[in-house]
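Risk register update: the risk of archive-format incompatibility is retired. Evidence:
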Amino acid sequence: MIPEADDADLSILLHEVRPDGQTIFLSSDLIRLSGRNRGGEPQPLVPGEESEVDITDFRFCA
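Archived output:
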């Protein structure tokens, strides 16, 4: 992603999409991007600079 500010909230929704087009909600999460290194010091984004965000703690049941 390329942010426009030094922090942002990322909302994630996970759906299963069936062959007939029907969607089934599986899970959601909300991440404050300055806290993307969970448990570490806040790390601000650099506006205009591409940033990679790893979603590693995402839990869901299917």
